[in-house]
Recover the amino acids of this structure.
């Protein structure tokens, strides 16, 4: 059996539509799985034929992602959907050896994601209008950090990109810090669900601590050692 290389019917609403571009967000883990396949290189259980067939599927999916109406719609999104679209597209491009495509998307992200999504004071207006604004602010920052990490493999530095008026990934992280540290300030925007677990921010703060050599970020990670998730321990710690 196989899944067709598209998300044409993702997030369909019965009686309303047969698919939405916003459903592409759900496919972001496909690119992670494709990246992880690299760990099987050389294994007798993963043959050259397997790799060839997978690459053919990924090429078809990547073409759909870049050129379909749904993909075009999601790429144009001004909030976290657009950022996660870029993460998915860049990761797939790197997996497929399409480095120049990845570099183009990353360069555009300086303006379409960082400059457009983050205010000079670090606020993310598109996420603050949500009913779970803290959760979505974290979610988009997580995507931006993923994108910046991928940029390291394509020679594009998003970590240190900053507009003339101060919009940057670091600024977005620093805006959230007072609401995460203990004693934490009261989040002044709508958050109808219980406040995020502090461990949700560990991946962001750990990467930021390494990149910026920022004691405040590292302090947050260190102080939350007991709360480290198994996934965080596996992927981030030595």
């Amino acid at each position: 059996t196989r899944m067709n290389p598209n998300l044409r019917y993702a997030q369909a609403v019965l009686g309303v539509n047969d698919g939405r571009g916003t459903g592409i967000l759900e496919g972001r883990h496909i690119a992670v799985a494709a990246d992880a396949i690299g760990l099987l290189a050389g294994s007798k259980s993963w043959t050259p034929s397997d790799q060839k067939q997978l690459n053919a599927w990924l090429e078809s999916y990547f073409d759909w992602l870049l050129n379909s109406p749904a993909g075009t719609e999601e790429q144009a999104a001004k909030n976290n959907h657009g950022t996660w679209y870029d993460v998915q597209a860049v990761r797939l491009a790197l997996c497929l050896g399409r480095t120049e495509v990845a570099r183009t998307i990353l360069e555009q992200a300086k303006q379409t994601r960082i400059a457009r999504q983050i205010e000079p004071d670090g606020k993310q207006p598109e996420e603050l209008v949500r009913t779970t604004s803290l959760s979505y602010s974290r979610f988009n920052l997580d995507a931006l950090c993923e994108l910046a990490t991928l940029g390291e493999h394509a020679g594009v530095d998003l970590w240190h990109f900053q507009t003339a008026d101060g919009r940057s990934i670091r600024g977005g992280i620093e805006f959230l810090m007072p609401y995460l540290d203990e004693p934490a300030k009261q989040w002044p925007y709508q958050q109808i669900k219980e406040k995020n677990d502090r461990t949700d921010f560990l991946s962001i703060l750990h990467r930021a601590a390494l990149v910026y050599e920022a004691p405040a970020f590292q302090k947050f990670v260190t102080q939350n050692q007991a709360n480290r998730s198994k996934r965080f321990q596996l992927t981030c710690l030595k």
